[in-house]
Each structure stands twice: as C-alpha cells, then as structure tokens.
Amino acid sequence: MKSDIRVCSAWRDAHDRPVYTLSTDCPECGADAVNSAPAPFDPEDSYGEYRRALKRRNR
Ligand SMILES: [Zn+2]
Fold first, then answer.
1. Residues annotated as region Disordered (predicted)?
2. Phi and psi at residue 49, in whole multiples of 5°?
C-alpha cells in the first residue's frame, strides 16, 4: 500500500523543520501540504544544519 505522506509547502517560512501530515493541508499553519516524494530535502540530512550555519553566519 502506497503511503501518502505530505509535507507543508510553506514549512521553510512557517516552521523550523518540515511538517508532515496525511492531510491535504498543514495542521499547524493551514498551508497546502504537498507530496513529499519529490522533496528536495531530507529531514534527517545535513540541510538543517547547513541552513542553521548559514543563518548564524549571516547574522
Ligand atoms: Zn505549515
């Protein structure tokens, strides 16, 4: 059975990390939730650290 996990399309703006849901919109901010399959990010990879490092540097 195919899972249909979606991710908040606005999580980069609205949240610190991807918000996953089975619904069609984000339970936290109400933005559209999009299929997470083609997502350009992995919640477990180093992107989060990278973004945090960038933020720190751009201060
Ligand atoms: Zn959201």
1. 35-59
2. -65, -40
Q: Does the pLDDT value for residue 34 go beyond 80?
A: yes
Q: How far is the CA of 29 from the centre of ligand 1 (A)?
A: 4
Please, which residues bridge with residue 55 across strands?
Answer: none
pLDDT of residue 44: 63
How does the average pLDDT of the chain come out, rounded?
80
Per-residue buried b or exposed e for 25-51, using 16+ beta carbons within 10 Å of the residue's own CB:
ebeeeebebbebeeeeeeeeeeeeeee
- Amino acid at position 22, single letter: L
Alpha helices in 1-59 (DSSP H): 11-14, 47-57
Say how many Å lie between the CA of residue 33 and the centre of ligand 1: 8
